[in-house]
Each structure stands twice: as structure tokens, then as C-alpha cells.
Amino acid sequence: MFLSSVFLCLRAINTQLHSSVGFEPEPLVIASANLEQVGFTTNTARPMCQAFMTKFSSLPGVQSVGMVDHPPFGGERGSLLTDRVRLHEGVDVEHATISVGPGYFRAMGIPLVAGREVSDSDFASGREVALVNETFVRTFWPNESVLGWKVERIRRQTFEVIGVVSDARLENPTKAPRPTVYYCANTYDALYPTFVLKANHPAALLPLIRSELARIHPLLGKSSIHTVRDAMRWPFASQRNVMNLLTEIAIVALGLTALGAYGLVSFLVTQRTNEFGVRLAVGAGRRDILNLILKLGLGLAFAGTLLGLPAAFGGSYLLRHLVPGVSPLDYTAFAIAAAGVFLAILLACYVPARRASRVDPLTALRHE
């Protein structure tokens, strides 16, 4: 049961890690910086962000660079509840909010459906523009041409919709995209930027990014820098904890199973030692004795597997409430777990089987 649960967790996490999230994570690197802690202000942070993006663009293998206020898969993003969405005035509607700088969608590989993304001049001037995702359009403005429409952020601050982008899972690989508005990053957002770099060799880029940040201030050299593929694993921390606990229990359970099989077969071999000696004396081969004991082990393995499968099925239904994405009827995981138990029992039986095949027939006959 525990071994199958481990494989169910592994397969669930692996499936979710390789599920479609609306963009390709493999070539992406994220670097989050805190410019406020090193002395930048709302007046100086925006030019510094633009300078960093220019520097990062010149690094070897970098294809494009963008900016956002929060790293992908870094947890739940902010939401806005408002009753001033066009066509829904007076009704409270909720949508996710993300602040983006120039080049973000190009770097992330999130396709533009209509319009354009935030430009350098939009960001430099603080122009109040925004993009919405397809889920936002389907939910609130279906069958409408929304470019040029207005969306409100806070304090009756309105942003012009300049583009529509495809849906992307940016909070958690397992959660469906929410209606989202991507606002042009303001001066406050520029104090805590996250840069997104699309590169040919993302892992090799990490020390170069850290070096560029450290040139401005040593504290920036300690910034959080990761590949997006690594960041995708962050939301699965609780699942991995459950899997690690189950792995430890499974190792103990498998060891006890093997030890029990070994003890039982060893006892039976001891009881039948004289019989094996007689068999050898009348012409049986040592391989025949070995096969005889292994057949006994094979029966134990079948019995243990058949008895364990119902418990494994029952455990899988409980596990799906702890680990999202677990399929209670994942027959591949059950087959791998059953094969593991089967092999462990056979290996445990092999040692006493070898001992039985080496019985001295003269000694056995003399005892008789």
C-alpha cells in the first residue's frame, strides 16, 4: 500500500510538472531584486530596471528580457474586487492583478491574441495601460472588441486596454487561469522587480545574472535567482512532504516484508533439509532444489501481492485528498509497486534457496 502510494505521488507530481501551463518554462530564468533596500526610490527605480533589462539582454544566449512584479509560481497573486467593470457596473466582480513591464509576454512566450504589450515608453512614462487574458474576456466581455476599453485599478485609476493575451497558469501549474488584468508596472512595482530572461542555456546564465546584480550593490548579488522549471516545483512542497513520509514508511514496510519472507522460507528449508539431501542423493540436481524453493517464494510473492492490492486501492482514494492530481486508478503505479514487492520477496527467498541447493546428500543420508 505504502509503496504504491509513493509511486502515485511521483506520477501525479511528474504529470503536473509537465502539463501545459500556457508557455514553455524550459528556457526561462527569473531574478527577483529588492531595489529599495539598496537605496533606490520611486524616482530612481524605474530607470534602474530599464538599465538592468538592457544589461541582461547583452548576456550570452539571452533572447529576450521582461519584467513583472511577482515570480511565476510564487504563490497566490493579488486580486481586485470591484463593481466598476464595464457591462457589469454595480455588481462585484473579482479578478487577479499582475503588474508587468516591457517585454514580459515576449520573454515568457505567452502569445498575444490582439493588440500589443507594454512598451518601453509606456513603462518609462508611467502610462496607464493594461492587457487582459482570454478568461477575463470570456467571463466579462464575451464577443466584444475590447481594445481601447477601460479597466479600473484602485482609487478610480483607469487603464486603457491595449491587448489581449492567451491564458497562462502563473500561480500554480495545477490551477486553471483566473480572469486576469496585467497592468503596466508603476513606480512602486519598480522597487521590487522580477526579471524574466529567455535564454538558450538558462542554468548557465544564473551566475552571470548574479554578477550583474552584484555590480550595483553586494546585497543585490544575494537576490533570488532560479530557472522557471525549478520554480514550478515550489507549489508541490506539501505533496513532496507527504511523498517523503510515505517513502520512509514504504522502505520500512518493504524491509519487514522481505525479512518475514526470508524467515519463513529459512524455517521451511531447515525443516526439509533431510528431504533435499535425499532428493540430491537419488539424482535431483542442485538447480532442481533451487527452483523448488523459489517456487515456494513465488507463491508467497503472489499471495502478498494479492492481499496488498485491495489495501493499495483503498489507500489511493484516501491519498487523493492529500495530494492533488493523484489518480486512484493509476494501474501503472500499482503495477510498479506490485513488481517491487514481488521482486523483494523473491530476492529474500533466494538466500535460503541457495543454502538448500548446497546440502550435502551424504550428510543427510547419514542423518536418516
Explain this structure.
The chain has 368 residues and is of the alpha+beta class. The chain has 2 domains: 22-231, no CATH class; 236-367, no CATH class. Helix content is 48%, strand content 16%. It is built from 12 helices and 11 strands. It has helices at 2-17, 45-57, 104-108, 120-125, 134-140, 202-216, 228-231, 237-271, 273-281, 286-319, 331-357, 361-367, and strands at residues 28-32, 62-68, 79-82, 93-100, 112-115, 129-133, 150-152, 158-165, 180-184, 194-199, 224-227. The strands form 2 sheets. Strands 3, 4, 5, 6, 7, 8 and 9 form a 7-stranded mixed beta sheet that branches. A hairpin with a 5-residue loop joins strand 7 and strand 8. The longest helix is centred in the last third of the chain and has 35 residues, at 237-271. The mean pLDDT is 82.
Q: What's the N-to-C terminus distance?
A: 45 Å
Radius of gyration: 31 Å
Cα shape: elongated
Helical segment tally?
A: 12
Strand content: 15-25%
**Overall pLDDT level:** 82
Structural class: alpha+beta
Q: How much helicity do the residues have?
A: 40-55%
Using DSSP, what is the number of strands? 11
Task: List the secondary-structure elements in sequence, H or E.
Answer: HEHEEEHEHEHEEEEHEHHHHHH
The major β-sheet equals: 7 strands, mixed
* Unreliable segments of 5+ consecutive residues: none
Number of domains: 2
Entry keywords:
seven-stranded mixed beta sheet; 2 domains; 12 helices; alpha+beta
Write the layout of secondary structure elements.
Layout: H1 2-17, E1 28-32, H2 45-57, E2 62-68, E3 79-82, E4 93-100, H3 104-108, E5 112-115, H4 120-125, E6 129-133, H5 134-140, E7 150-152, E8 158-165, E9 180-184, E10 194-199, H6 202-216, E11 224-227, H7 228-231, H8 237-271, H9 273-281, H10 286-319, H11 331-357, H12 361-367
Parallel strand pairs: 4-9, 6-8
Antiparallel strand pairs: 1-10, 1-11, 2-10, 3-4, 5-8, 6-9, 7-8
Helix pairs in contact: 1-8, 1-10, 1-11, 8-11, 9-12, 10-11
